[in-house]
Design goal:
Blueprint (H helix, E strand, L loop, with lengths): L7 E6 L2 H12 L3 E6 L4 E3 L4 E3 L2 H8 L4 E2 L7 H9 L4 E5 L6 H4 L6 E5 L11 H7 L4 E8 L9 E8 L6 H24 L36 H9 L7 E6 L5 E13 L9 E3 L5 E5 L2 E9 L6 E2 H7 L7 E2 L1
Parallel strand pairs: 1-2, 1-6, 2-5, 6-7
Antiparallel strand pairs: 3-4, 7-8, 8-9, 10-11, 10-16, 11-14, 12-13, 13-14, 14-15
Helix pairs in contact: 1-6
């Protein structure tokens, strides 16, 4: 049996979520012979090039690094071959061409932040919370042609509390993911993997997708029931953040990001989007079957504030509404 020190691993990932698994491999003594991440991107007002979190970690630990623009580029593919990987691991990266995922003799596995086959796609954590799920998890699976469809190696489940936002769930799954990645490598090393085709896995209810989230996706529909709006807001908090337009008495509008709310189930005859406030401590917005109590929000050019903090410096009356 090959030792973990001899197994040549190439790691691919980009955001913070992917750093924890890489850290677990490096600190666990696994032989990471190279790291692949996205090219640097301009960010901020000065448009300075910003490293991905995975690149930052790789540089701090002197790991060989590639940042290809195109994954089918011959120069990149040849450089990848020279690393002679036995196994490739992908965490929150890009869709790989077959020439890349089929290269190592032991294959390529991916860590996905859902209980596959549920939530195939780019934003599985967000959609699980948005849809009001009470459970989610992480899955390792071998890469195949179609995205997120390969045979499952291992899964770990966790509950989602009604008060959890996507940031809380993200961090829990990130920490569990690092552990699951090393356990999956060990199982492959010990020839103890019995992968299960996803079509053979029991699924309760219909399969839900997890498409990429855009700005328009994040707009709140106040005609929805309170529970649906509440879950929608926490499923986008703290990032990218649900938003609505705050309409001032003169008709001018500003974008209001909402991060934290409470459910107030109460019958009323008000039009959804009607705003109730005492101007000091609370903001309630009418929904289909009650109100959303806004606890934390942000106005343009300002920082995120608790409702009472915002109301100290912003004059809000019931002549305002949201849409």
């Amino acid at each position: 049996m090959m030792k973990k020190e001899d197994l040549r691993i190439v790691y691919m990932g980009t955001p913070d979520f992917a750093v924890e698994s890489l850290r677990c491999l490096v600190e666990g003594g696994y032989n990471v012979v190279g790291v692949i991440t996205t090219p640097d991107k301009p960010a901020g007002r000065g448009h300075k090039l910003q490293f991905s979190p995975v690149k930052q970690y790789a540089l701090e630990h002197s790991l060989p690094l590639l940042q290809p623009e195109k994954l089918k580029d011959e120069v990149f593919v040849e450089a990848l071959r020279e690393w002679k990987a036995d196994l490739q691991i992908v965490v929150a990266f890009r869709m790989l061409p077959e020439v890349v995922w089929n290269m190592p003799r032991l294959g390529t596995f991916n860590l996905h932040a859902s209980l596959l086959p549920q939530y195939r796609g780019a934003a599985p954590i967000n959609w699980a919370v948005i849809n009001g799920d009470t459970e989610t998890g992480i899955t390792t699976f071998f890469l195949r042609h179609e995205i997120d469809t390969g045979e499952v190696i291992q899964q770990v489940r966790i509950p989602i509390a009604d008060t959890d936002d996507v940031g809380i769930v993200h961090d829990k799954l990130m920490m569990l993911g690092g552990k699951l990645v090393t356990e999956t490598v060990d199982a492959i090393l010990n020839d103890a993997v019995k992968p299960i085709p996803q079509e053979e896995m029991a699924v309760v209810g219909e399969l839900r997708p997890a498409p990429k989230i855009f700005k328009d996706t994040c707009r709140i529909d106040w005609n929805q029931p309170v529970k649906r709006i509440y879950d929608f807001i926490r499923g986008l908090s703290p990032y990218p953040a649900a938003w609505s337009e705050l309409v001032q008495p003169d008709g001018e509008t500003v974008v209001m990001k909402i991060f934290e709310t409470e459910k107030i189930i109460q019958s009323h005859q008000l039009t959804p989007g009607t705003l109730l406030t005492d101007g000091k401590t609370y903001i309630h917005v009418a929904a289909a079957d009650g109100f959303i109590g806004i606890r934390a929000l942000q106005l343009p050019g300002k920082k995120r504030l608790k409702t009472d903090e915002l109301l100290r410096g912003f004059r809000l009356t019931e002549e305002f509404r949201v849409k």
